[in-house]
Amino acid sequence: MQTEESQNTEHVDIPPVTGPFAEPWSLKKIIGLAAVFGPAAIVASVSIGAGETIVVVRAGAWAEYNLLWLVLLSCVVKGVFVTYLLGRYTAVSGEYIGNRLAKLPGPRGWLLIAIVIFEMVGAPLAWVPIGKPCGALLHFLFKDTLPSVVSQPVWENLITSCFITLALLFGLRISFERLEKQQLIICAILVVGTIIGTLMVRPDFGKALVGSLRFGHLPEFPEWAPTDAVENPLLTMATAFGYVGGSVMGYVVYANWVSMHRWGMTSHNNIEAIRQRAANSDKIDYLPEHPEQVSQLRKILAPLRWDIGMGAIVLFIVTGAFMISGAAVLYGMESTFEGWSLLTDQASVWENIHASLVWVYYICIIVALWGTLQALPEIYARVMQEFFQAIWPHREWSYGTLRKWVCLYIFLTTIVLIWLNIPFDILTQIAGFILANFSIALMMLAALYLNAKLPAAYRTRPFMFIGALISAAVLVTFAGISGWGLCVKLFAGN
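RE: above sequence
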């Protein structure tokens, strides 16, 4: 019979390489590698919300191609480094990130509680800028069939309320497996649709390339740009950066989905025993030190790398295409695009170019934003269940119950905000700071901590570590810009 001491020093075997990653290169292997794309597809499609369809389009309308570097930087920093480091910890250790982060110095689980609070405070502020422009667009499409006894703003709020309610109801019923398949289809529609739309507006690809590589360049907004953008250019830039890629929970949940797909060490036959051992120790001391075993673990991380790579590419193509379209079409028209009819105004512009562009636009927009809202309850509940279970392990936390309460909370708070008619800019700026710039910077620092908790041989390679450090510095910088700019705007009365 083994003693507790011998169990604590015993190493576990690394699972073998399986599936297409164990096969020689062939067409079958390439198809198998493409089939790996799943969790990052959800992250990418959920990220494509108000930020990609509205915020970056408006930025292109005022700054032309000169802020494309912001899109590229955000996709690399968040779509690659944040997602990879968080997902990699679970894939290497087999442990949920919540269990390890709950042990941070200080009150148990303080960081996890903070992330949940930030997301729940900011979520309604993010849902309204997604739902309300959709309500305005749907009202625009069906206004001739609606009774005129109700005013346009009331109809838009009613339609928005129904749109969000339906998204929440469908979000309550959809399983993770169905959600993943749905978001893969949405990704395909978005990539094809945005590429077609961008090619049809004939952008200046030379200027787009230059704009993508001028990192740190902040162009002067023209006089006809909205007053808020002209008076708060740094805040506008930081908000656009934050909105590209979505909110913090979209990245946190990725590590949980890695476990559901059984990538890396999570495919071990005794994974529950490994997790229990990790939970009872301050060190990850069960991974073997032999170079062959270390090399084998790095090989079984291949699905993670392929998934994240494809997700980052999808995010950049779609987001970049929206900004390029804004630069190619709207900049020359000197369009300010203020208020809540942002999607409707964009549709009218595409119609002036070619009638077929309008329906490409409608399909891409409605599909993208519906997919975002429908997927969010799964993300919220999945992360909350993991975090609460890590903080209070002796209590059982039901995923289904948490999802119902989250949906009820989102419904009540969002409906109130819809009918308060709060301006678009202030909602996006506050949500961008809380949900993206500040919270994601905090999680990136936590991801570096998680990487440091792994045995030295299993930490990420030097070039990825350097990239992660630079990414953390970028995120902290934009969080500072966003927070300072928001304070100046609010307290200066702008």
